[in-house]
Amino acid sequence: MFDLLPSKRRSEVPGVFSEMDDMLKKMWYDFPFHNLQADVNLAWSPRLDVSETDKALEVVADLPGMEKKDIKVSLDGDLLTIQGEKKEVKEKKDKHYHTIERRSGSFYRALRLPVEVRSDKIEANFKDGTLTLTLPKSKESEKKVAQIEIK
After folding, report:
1. CA angle in degrees (0–180, nearest 5) for 67-70-72
2. Is residue 136 part of a domain?
3. DSSP string of 101-125?
4. What is the pLDDT of residue 121?
5. Which has more pLDDT, 98 or 48?
6. Burial letters for 67-88: b for 16+ Cβ neighbours within 10 Å, e otherwise?
């Protein structure tokens, strides 16, 4: 029976829900000092940059306010894992806060490496809230990509 309904009417239903969602967001998120991005990302995770050279992969993670003792990095096959916990900062009771946007708690990031790396040669450095991992490629991965002529 639903096959007899015009297709236009079916497409209006998601539109109604979308409009209702937009109205609720405007009502709640327009409140002074409210940060929409903070509510979207309830669980925090560090932002990563992953780059590649002929000889190595480099992963850079922003971990502001953390100490290296609170960070754990592991490699299982081709799965690189960065995890840790950012301790909660104790707020002073004599202050009246308008907004608190800094995140705390545990995080877990895992990514599959696109090439094989030498796990015995990985270097990890942590300075000024930035974790830099240098993962040297294996000899097989260092081989140049063959250029194929198109005829």
Report:
1. 120
2. yes
3. ----EEEEEEEE-SS-B-GGG-EEE
4. 94
5. 48
6. eeeebebeeeeeebebbbebee
**69/85 Cα distance (integer angstroms):** 10
| C-alpha 4, offset from chain centre | 45
Q: Tens of pLDDT along 57-82?
A: 999 999 988 899 999 999 999 999 99
Please count the structural domains in the chain.
1
Q: pLDDT at position 126, please?
A: 95
- Classify the C-alpha dihedral 94-128-114-147 as positive or negative: positive
Q: Taking the CA atoms of the chain, what radius of gyration do you get in angstroms?
A: 24
Question: Has residue 14 been placed in a domain?
Answer: no
Residue 57 lies in a domain: yes
Strands in 19-91 per DSSP E: 48-52, 56-62, 71-76, 79-86
Look at residue 60 in the predicted model and tell me its pLDDT: 97
Residue 148 lies in a domain: no
Q: What is the pLDDT of residue 51?
A: 94
Phi-psi region of 82 (alpha: psi -120 to 50; beta: other; left: phi over 0): beta
- Give the pLDDT mean for 115-138: 94
